[in-house]
Structure formats: C-alpha cells, structure tokens
C-alpha cells in the first residue's frame, strides 16, 4: 500500500500552524532488495541514470540510480513535482539534505549530492539494499522477522539515535518504516524529513524549522500537543516501535486518528507481556518505561537505554546479550 499523508489543520490545542502528518497506515510492501519494476518516465536525472523505483512516497520518490561517470550506485530521494511547487516544501527538502550531510554515523545514511532543481530538487545517499522493519511486522509470512538479529538491529538504531541526540538533533519520526536492515543484520535509521533541533538550539542555522511533525501511531503526547519536542519524544516513538517489534502490534488501536491521538495522550498502554508471553520481563519493563506519558518519567536518554538493553534479552529463548556475557548480569 502506498503511504498516505494527512494534512491536518491544528485546532484548539495551542498549535498555530498547519502540520503535515504522515499517515497511520504507512505501509510499503516492497523491499528494496531487488525485483521492483522501473516506473520513471525519464531514465536520466542530472548526472545519474535511473535504475529502479524503490519507494514511491507521498512527498518524494526513492530510487536506485547509478552515477554515469563513476558507475557508483546510490539511492536518490527526489521531491515530487506536486510538492516542489510549494517553496516551503522545497526548503524543508533542502533542510533534510543538509541534515543528512551533517550527520555522520555508521548507522545513519550519508547524503552526498544535493541538487537544487527549481521544481524537483533531489539528493543522493548511500544505497543500502535492505528491507524496512514494517515488512516483517505487517507481513510476517512473506518477510520473516529477523528474530536472532533483533537485538543487534535495535542496538544499532539506538546508537544512531544517541548520536543524533548528542548533537542536539531530534529525529521526530522514529517508526519501523524508517529502520532498514539487511540480511547480515546491519541496520540504518533513515528519513530526516522531520528532524530538528530543540527550540532555542541551533535551529537558526538552517532557517525556519520544518512544519511537519510525525506519524500519529508513534507520536509522543507532547508532539500531539504541539509542545516543543525534546529527545524524550524520540524515546517515546522508539519505545512504541520496540513494543511493536516484539509483539507485532502497537499498544493503542483506534477507529479514527483523533481517538488514536487521545489514547496516546491519556490511555494506559496494555502491558507488552499480555500480547507476547515470550518477551522477557526486563525488556517489557524497559519498553513500558519508554512510553510513559510524561517525558520526565521515561528513561532519561538513549545512553541509558543502551546500557540497560545491552544486559537484557528480548525473548526468553534468546541467546544471552553481549552485556550479560560480559558478566554485567541482568
Ligand atoms: N539509502 C537507501 N537505500 C535503500 N533504500 C532506501 C534508502 N533510503 C530509503 N530507502 C527505502 O525507501 C523507503 C522510504 O524512504 P524514506 O526516506 O523514509 O522516505 P519517506 O520520506 O517517503 O518516508 C524506506 O522505507 C526504505 O525502504
Ligand atoms: Mg520514511
């Protein structure tokens, strides 16, 4: 299913501007490990040749391309023409590329080239043949959950997030679709479209902050309320993601977006163990601590997460984690 985007008008919750909220059912069922049919009308984009479509999103396209002179393969993200007509969309896209160039971490994708096309700007980044984590969650029969690699995948994403937070960046769109992994269990945290510095930080460096805010199923109560986000908002979204990875469903389900947002703000999440008895109590406790309503009640930072997580198993029959083997105990 193609991604759905919802242009939500903020109303009555103290938000003064319109927010583009990514769809609740944000599911793209093709992996980027090959097999998709090329769908572009032109096969040349600047210095690059189009090879295949990886992901036709609602704001942009992700394609595999080859740089004609070096013959290197890249992933290219290109703003859709319909979005490129809006100068603020172009500015937000440029901002995303700039963030990608600034961030340098083995578990984040490096952005190389940004081309400021007047209508359809694009940037290239490392091509990482992979699947996103939504696939094994939504279609486990077709895409097996990499259960024995999950500890490593979560650790890599947490390391990338800790790095972003250390540099005073908030990702603001942590969810399974934005975690990609390959067959060896290497993982990357992707998509800096919503990333920003906390208000008062270095946000002035790149001008206006992006107006888009997150994906409802993963949004922290403070994001929903349009309060200034802090890294704790990412910890909440990552907690919802870790919950879903372990039991195949999110803590909250609702018939409408409003109902869902209300549950994030006010409803106590169902204990993780009640959806999967194989999950260890230590993992369940850590995840439940990440999805506390009040930021101050969550684990304080991603370093603390990494330290605790290195010592616990996700599932009861998992092999002991690295920290456990090092004699740190549970
Ligand atoms: N560098 C990359 N290499 C390979 N696949 C990628 C790369 N970047 C993104 N993808 C694929 O494209 C999908 C959408 O990318 P993303 O940047 O999250 O776009 P959007 O802003 O539309 O959500 C990802 O889930 C992933 O499967
Ligand atoms: Mg994405």
Got a strand count? 11
Strand order of the largest sheet: 3-4-5-6-8-7
For the record, the CATH architecture of the largest domain stands as Orthogonal Bundle
**Bound small molecules, deduplicated:** adenosine-5'-diphosphate, magnesium ion
Question: Structural class, from helix and strand content?
Answer: alpha+beta
**End-to-end distance, in Å?**
41 Å
TL;DR of this structure?
With 330 residues, the protein is an alpha+beta fold. The chain folds into two domains: 123 residues, Phosphorylase Kinase, domain 1 (2-Layer Sandwich); 179 residues, Transferase(Phosphotransferase) domain 1 (Transferase(Phosphotransferase), domain 1), CATH 1.10.510.10.
Question: What would you note in describing this structure?
Answer:
- By secondary structure, the chain is of the alpha+beta class.
- It has two domains: 123 residues, Phosphorylase Kinase, domain 1, CATH 3.30.200.20; 179 residues, Orthogonal Bundle (Transferase(Phosphotransferase), domain 1).
- The protein is 30% helix and 16% strand.
- It contains ten helices and eleven strands.
- The strands form three sheets. Strands 3-4-5-6-8-7 form a six-stranded antiparallel sheet. A three-stranded antiparallel sheet has the order 9-10-11. It has a two-stranded antiparallel ribbon with strand order 1-2.
- The termini are far apart.
- The N terminus is likely disordered.
- The site of adenosine-5'-diphosphate has 22 residues, from strand 4, strand 5, strand 6 and strand 8.
